[in-house]
Amino acid sequence: MSAIETKEEEWLRFIDTLSHELKTPLTSIIAAAGLLAEELEAGGDHSHRRLIQTIIQNANTLENRLAELLDIVKTGTGEIQLQLEPVDLKSLLRGTGMQISPLIQGKGQHLELDLPPSLPIIRGDGQRLEQVVLNLLNNATKFSAEGCNIVLRARSRDTEILVEVQDSGIGIDPEELPRLFKPYSRLNADRQRHPGLGLGLALAKQVVELHGGKIWVESQPGKGSTFSFTLPARVKKQDI
Question: Of the candidates 29, 56, 77, which is a domain's last residue?
């Protein structure tokens, strides 16, 4: 093993240990804030509700960042394992759309579900696939202005299923496209307006590829972006 590989393994172990060390007290903070909010609500004290909600919201954000870090570590060490089971992809997409719909509506945007009457049942990790779709939808609403339309689309074609998230937002500079799915890579517009580690798309790529699919983006500055990924529609016998 080379010195570079040794250093990389040490760094991954450090991130893994640090993430676990931070996760325990963070979970306690979220739980305590939730209990405090319930007690204040029961006592009719609404004066500090906004402060408590701010604590919970930011703690949840930090918890999500730690989860992303742990996923990246697992990916780098080959430890991510899919929990394969039959997945009703149409129901998953519809449910994910409903889950993020309040956020999209709150920004004055509209989510359109363009789904066929039926899609093949696939074998995959439903939780991980939901994570991919949520990430793409979250990016779409993040970079779209009020009044914009966001489309979640799916089609069955030959031996694969195509899923697309299309927006009419700010688009992506062609120079930034090659590094878009790399860990810790963030768009210039993203760094300026939104906090984050730049791990979401890298994780999405890993999950899709572990399912045997591909993910890519087509974008024009000022006209919006379409993120697409495919999943095998048929299952190999050794995967059953």
Answer: 77
